[in-house]
């Protein structure tokens, strides 16, 4: 499932929790904006137009329920309430006011991610399990041109540059996600390499080899760039 480009606002007055949730989701391809209170969340919502909001109930000043009520006056963005309160009444009130889901702290980050994907799926035009439309024709990759129909890479003089099936698959994935940051798991999953292990870093080696073929200066890549702490982006 591709989640690239989805913006999520994490609104919580606890810095440690914001950073933990933000880092976890960022590593999985989401664009994260962290805010410490309702006021900052409103400002971020106007600037970034989020696809989903994670909102704490128990915040000083304007609490999460009041923030949700105000947010619902102008937006139908999916909202997941995240709070230390676990009483049924709090869940009922939050859901009746327009929250899409509710999780009590301490939250399991894997469960939170699953709830996020479910909420985004329910949106009109939300994420799906389908792959992007297959690329056709050709596309430039730095010094080279990739022919999707023939699965071949050519240099500036139209000479074929040898590439492996996995290298072609990686270039195709980058083309399908141009301008989007992809982490290692997403690259390996979309390239259909089922032989990888959860902490396999072989993707770095493969991209290093590709850079030697397509970059003007492989030590300072400009075509496939590294996004520190997250992954890679093309374009």
TrEMBL record:
Q: Which residues form the OmpR/PhoB-type domain?
A: 136-235
Please give the superkingdom of this protein's source. Answer: Bacteria
What PROSITE patterns does the record point to? OMPR_PHOB, RESPONSE_REGULATORY
Q: Which Pfam families match?
A: Response_reg, Trans_reg_C
Which residues carry the record's DNA-binding region feature? 136-235
The PTM 4-aspartylphosphate maps to 56
Entries under InterPro entries matching the protein: CheY-like_superfamily, OmpR/PhoB-type_DNA-bd, Sig_transdc_resp-reg_C-effctor, Sig_transdc_resp-reg_receiver, WalR-like, WH-like_DNA-bd_sf
- Keywords of this entry: DNA-binding, Phosphoprotein, Transcription, Transcription regulation, Two-component regulatory system
- Occurrences of domain Response regulatory (ranges): 7-120
Q: Give the protein name, as stated in the record.
A: Response regulator
């Amino acid at each position: 499932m591709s989640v690239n480009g989805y913006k999520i606002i994490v609104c919580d007055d606890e810095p440690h929790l914001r950073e933990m949730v933000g880092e976890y989701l960022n590593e999985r391809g989401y664009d994260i904006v962290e805010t410490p209170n309702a006021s900052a969340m409103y400002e971020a919502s106007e600037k970034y137009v989020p696809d989903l909001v994670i909102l704490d109930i128990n915040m000083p000043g304007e609490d999460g329920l009041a923030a949700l009520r105000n947010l619902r006056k102008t937006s139908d963005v999916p909202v997941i309430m995240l709070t230390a309160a676990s009483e049924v009444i709090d869940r009922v009130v939050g859901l009746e006011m327009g929250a899409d889901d509710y999780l009590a702290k301490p939250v399991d980050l894997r469960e939170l991610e699953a709830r996020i994907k479910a909420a985004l799926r329910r949106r009109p035009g939300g994420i799906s399990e389908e792959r992007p439309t297959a690329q056709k024709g050709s596309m430039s990759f730095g010094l080279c041109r990739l022919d999707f129909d023939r699965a071949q890479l050519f240099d500036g003089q139209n000479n074929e540059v040898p590439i492996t099936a996995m290298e072609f698959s990686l270039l195709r994935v980058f083309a399908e996600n141009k301008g989007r940051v992809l982490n290692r798991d997403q690259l390996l999953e979309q390239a259909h390499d089922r032989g990888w292990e959860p902490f396999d870093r072989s993707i770095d080696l493969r991209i290093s080899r590709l850079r030697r073929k397509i970059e003007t200066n492989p030590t300072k890549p400009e075509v496939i760039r590294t996004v520190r702490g997250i992954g890679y982006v093309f374009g």
